Amino acid sequence: MAKSNTEKKVLPLLEPIVEERGLELVDLEFVKEGANWYLRVYIDKEGGVSIDDCEAVSRALEAKLDEKDPIEQAYVLEVSSPGIDRPLKKDADFIRFQGEIIDVKLYKAVDGQKQFQGKLLGLNDGVISLEEEDGTVREFVQKDTADVRLAVIF
After folding, report:
1. pTM
2. Which CATH superfamily is domain 5-80 in?
3. Where do you find CATH 3.30.300.70 in the chain?
4. 27: which strand partners?
5. HAMAP family under this entry (predicted)?
6. DSSP assignment, residue 123?
7. pLDDT tens digits, 111-130
8. DSSP class of residue 48?
9. What is the CATH number assigned to the segment(s) 91-150?
10. List of residues 6+ apart from 152 with CB closer than 8 A
């Protein structure tokens, strides 16, 4: 998904902050919900992030944003973990989580359905492959997917 101009301005400020703390930048989004704008930063690391990790990134990014002032309107800054149903967006995500169960949501229905679940087989040339529980292998063009996440299985 293409980044907004605001996200493109914030990204070079954010990446060094995340990297110097040994964290991974999972996603960055600048969205309007109701009357408010939100700058959301999702970070992760092996074993999961702590509140202290989120606070450290938030404070450092806040200081950098105050200094550079790249965002015109008022906004709320949120820094958090991507959660147990982490979105898979980057090619590296599909490599790291190969073999895990994922949920795929499509913009347009295929065989009458828009949601699929199965074991991630991989991502090759922009095509996501997964194996459903019954052994059926399905392929989805990544740009045709609305959302791809790790499945939450209880």
Report:
1. 0.81
2. RimP-like superfamily, N-terminal (3.30.300.70)
3. 5-80
4. 42
5. RimP
6. E
7. 999 999 999 999 999 999 99
8. -
9. 2.30.30.100
10. 84, 85
